[in-house]
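question for whoever is on the cluster today: can someone run the full assembly for these? two chains, 227 residues total. i dont have access anymore since they changed the login thing
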Amino acid sequence: AQSVTQLDSQVPVFEEAPVELRCNYSSSVSVYLFWYVQYPNQGLQLLLKYLSGSTLVKGINGFEAEFNKSQTSFHLRKPSVHISDTAEYFCAVSESLNPGFQKLVFGTGTRLLVSP
Amino acid sequence: NAGVTQTPKFRILKIGQSMTLQCTQDMNHNYMYWYRQDPGMGLKLIYYSVGAGITDKGEVPNGYNVSRSTTEDFPLRLELAAPSQTSVYFCASSTGTTPLHFGNGTRLTVT
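^ ran it for u. tokens below:
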């Protein structure tokens, strides 16, 4: 069965500093990988996704992630964070062969706290 | 462009009461999902639907029921509310190669 581990429950960082949010997954087959962001009192929004092709994936708001099959990781990075990036970030994996039907398994989330 | 709309936003139930969480989407998406989100636990899939008339259980279906009579609507029913069902519930939809579109959630407290 597939699973997702987000090692850090909370990551404090100063504004304009770089950040990396870690995500490791386990699966016995090919996977699709996603990062979602949740702002307070809102639903989740897709930041970026890896379906196939280039292992470096760029998303919205300056975020990017790199798929590393040998390390089974999909870490999220941003070179310079803003106060507005304060939110909860979820990594998710899907083994679905149909990209439209995404039976996602989510990690437990990482709360990014950006301070001035 | 409303996207995925969930009602109500908040609800307090007494143990044993029943209620229906409403979810509707206006994007003509085939696939719809119900998740629950508990602190420190991420999101768990309760039920999903691949089209009108077709539903299936997810990871944590016990205590819930769903129906999908139209493409737009995917209500979630709690028959006998229990404290363990206190959570934030999210409905989502998708189709083709689009990502999941989430509603803003329903915060349910069972006391």
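summary bc i know u wont read the tokens: The interface with chain A takes residues 4, 30-31, 35, 40-45, 48, 50, 58, 90, 92, 94-100, 102-105 of chain B (CB under 8 Å). The CA atoms of residues 8 and 106 of chain B lie 6 Å apart.
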